[in-house]
Amino acid sequence: MTKVYDRVALIGLGLIASSMYWAIKRAGLAGEVTGFARSAETRDTARRIGLCDRVCDTVQDAVRDADLVVLCVPVGAMGSVARDIAPVLKSGATISDVGSVKRSVIDAVAPHLPACVHFIPAHPLAGTEHSGPESGFATLFDNRWCLLVPMPETDADAVQRLRDFWVGIGSNVDEMDPDHHDLVLAVTSHTPHLIAYTMVGVADDLGRVTDSEVIKYSAAGFRDFTRIAASDPTMWRDVFLTNKDATLEILGRFTEELFALQRAIRTGDGEMLHDYFTRTRSIRRGIIEAGQDTDAPDFGRAQLDNKE
Amino acid sequence: MTKVYDRVALIGLGLIASSMYWAIKRAGLAGEVTGFARSAETRDTARRIGLCDRVCDTVQDAVRDADLVVLCVPVGAMGSVARDIAPVLKSGATISDVGSVKRSVIDAVAPHLPACVHFIPAHPLAGTEHSGPESGFATLFDNRWCLLVPMPETDADAVQRLRDFWVGIGSNVDEMDPDHHDLVLAVTSHTPHLIAYTMVGVADDLGRVTDSEVIKYSAAGFRDFTRIAASDPTMWRDVFLTNKDATLEILGRFTEELFALQRAIRTGDGEMLHDYFTRTRSIRRGIIEAGQDTDAPDFGRAQLDNKE
User: Fold this and answer.
1) Interval A85-132: pLDDT, tens
2) N or C end: fewer C-beta atoms under 10 angstroms in chain A?
3) A47 or A306: which carries more pLDDT confidence?
4) Residues 80-99 of A with CB under 8 A from B
């Protein structure tokens, strides 16, 4: 692989930034990678595990002279970070992010940035239920999609360079406009997360079934929800607050469908249920064929268990 | 391992029965295992892949002289199978099942059975999204729970023997009364499945987001729902029709909670969302500690992908 940027700055050292660092190193995509996290404890951890070539104590030191700055903080914190770094950004640098919502990040970040930098919002569609600087790994983005959300007036060369960077990290890259991005993600990510959080909350809160029973008997389906519902609370709070309209729209559709199925159960309409459950199988096949999941039964848990 | 039953009959040769067969053979739990499936195609497949020591063309031939008969058909078919086999059951035999609902199976099966057999309903809490005779594997039940639902008057020796059998298959065994079983499973399995089916149905049906987009960008959370929503439609139709009351009760609680979270999003109540999302993390830790899931990030998908 060839170097795409001389100097890259990662702001916020959680799951995404730490995985990016290991993937950047794997492919030799940058000369030097600097890092900054607001918490001294996170910076200490990063230094201890060798995360980033140089961990800086101020966000300004981290971004100074960087050719690419990637904001990897919760969506709700993007605006204030942009304000803090704006005065020291290098002319011609690319500023990007990894936020799960794009319209609100653009609204929060763009007004702070000087005209001499290229702002290209991005969103890598990859993650796990773990968070923090020690949760990253180089293969997180392999064969996953990264969506770039450039504005029409953005410099084409800068976009191509960021695209090369994400391809080097292992991703497939697509471009999308911000509002469509936020709607697509409300369907493929935000609403599923809210539903999973809700189901786990219900189970936790039910007096007649103990938590111990829920935990022991979770393999019947529930545990797949708990992985999703174990994701970072701050990140997800910000996602729902900043992608409010699209999430509420999809939630409305979800509730409408759920009530239709609930009615079919109540009235004993087996044909409606069977037809519905048959239709949803084909989406799964599409995901396997598109390489976005493994066909190993049960996500291959049996194979993993046996390796231990 | 020692033999627990001389002859075992598996009725219905899908994921559960085929996994049971391989697990029985692995542990040497039975002298001979016979099998029956209603479809000639399934029987041919079973013979071709060596599933069961003897595949019979009638259900009566399969159960004749069996010391243990396990009904592995959809819940809605249990009653008619019980009626068909009742006249030829061996005196002293144990009749069990693997249905996901227990009260309705007892109501459908018990009236047909002669007094000279032991009826001990059971439910192994294990499964994958795959179905059919070729989907089984010996490790499916390892370290998963099997719930026995004996009636108070059931012979204790017969219960102990069935318990030994499931332990030999690899399971942990608990006993539960049928109504509590159906409520617990409504929480840990039935409602999560209905919700997953609904979410996948919504995504499939949304004109403004294409199926291709849903499939490509599913790694952001949605794909975990699609595995659940790819489960066997007939089995799940029967589950909802026969565990109607408990499912509707839990669905009511779910909707109530979902509306509370929806309201928090609409009103911008970030504190409520953050608190809720923090609470649900602890359930996940309990499941990992109880050995009911792997802590590998993303269910270990990265490891599996790399092995290919």
Assistant:
1) 999 999 999 999 999 999 999 999 999 999 999 999 999 999 888 999
2) C
3) A47
4) none
Distance CA B74, CA B78 (A): 7
Residue with tokens 């189901």: A199
Which parts of chain B are beta strand (E)? 5-11, 30-36, 54-55, 68-71, 94-97, 118-119, 122-124, 145-148, 172-175
Instruction: State both tokens at B148.
Output: 């026995």
Residue reference for tokens 């692989």: A1
How far A278 CA lies from chain B's nearest CA (Å)? Answer: 6
**B96 band by pLDDT with thresholds 50, 70 and 90:** very high
Does an H or E element contain A95, and which? strand A94-97
Sign of the four-CA dihedral B148, B149, B154, B156:
positive
Return all residues near A261 (Cβ < 8 A) that are at least 6 apart: A272, A273, A276, B194, B197, B198
Give the DSSP letter string of B120-157.
--EEE----S--SGGG--TTTTTT-EEEE---TTS-HH
Q: What is the pLDDT of residues B209-263, one digit of tens each?
A: 999 999 999 988 899 899 889 989 999 999 999 999 999 999 999 999 999 999 9
Using a CB-CB cut-off of 8 Å, the residues of chain B touching A286 are: 211-212, 215
Write the CA distances from B286 to B257, B278, B294, integer angstroms. 22, 14, 12
- Per-residue pLDDT tens for B14-41? 999 999 999 999 999 999 999 999 999 9
Tell me which residue of B106, B112, B182 sits closest to B147, measured CA to CA.
B182
CB of A231 within 8 A of CB of A129? Answer: yes
CA angle B5, B10, B14 (to 5 degrees): 140
> Any chain A CB within 8 A of the CB of B144?
yes
Return the number of CB contacts < 8 Å for A and B: 371
Say how far apart CA A40 and CA B90 lie, in whole Å: 73
Burial B5-41 (b: 16+ CB within 10 A, else e): bebbbbbbbbbbbbbbbbbbeebebbeebbbbbeeee
Question: Could you give the ipTM of this predicted complex?
Answer: 0.92
Q: Which domains does chain B have, with CATH numbers?
A: 5-175 (3.40.50.720), 180-293 (1.10.3660.10)
Minimum distance, in Å, between the CA of residue A224 and any CA atom of chain B: 7
Q: Are B66 and B7 in contact (CB under 8 A)?
A: yes
| pLDDT tens figures, A181-233 | 999 999 999 999 999 999 999 999 888 899 999 999 998 889 989 988 998 99
The residues in B 26-65 lying below 8 A from A, measured between CB atoms, are none
Report residue B54 as tokens. Answer: 């003897």
Verify whether the Cβ–Cβ distance B244 to A253 is below 8 Å: no
Q: Which of residues 215-274 of B touch A (CB under 8 A)?
A: 215-231, 233-234, 236-238, 240-241, 244, 247-248, 250-251, 253-255, 257-258, 261-262, 265-266, 268, 270, 273-274
Q: Which residue is listed with tokens 């399934």?
A: B42
Cross-chain Cβ contact A300/B299 below 8 Å:
yes
- Which positions in chain B touch A234 (Cβ < 8 Å)? 274
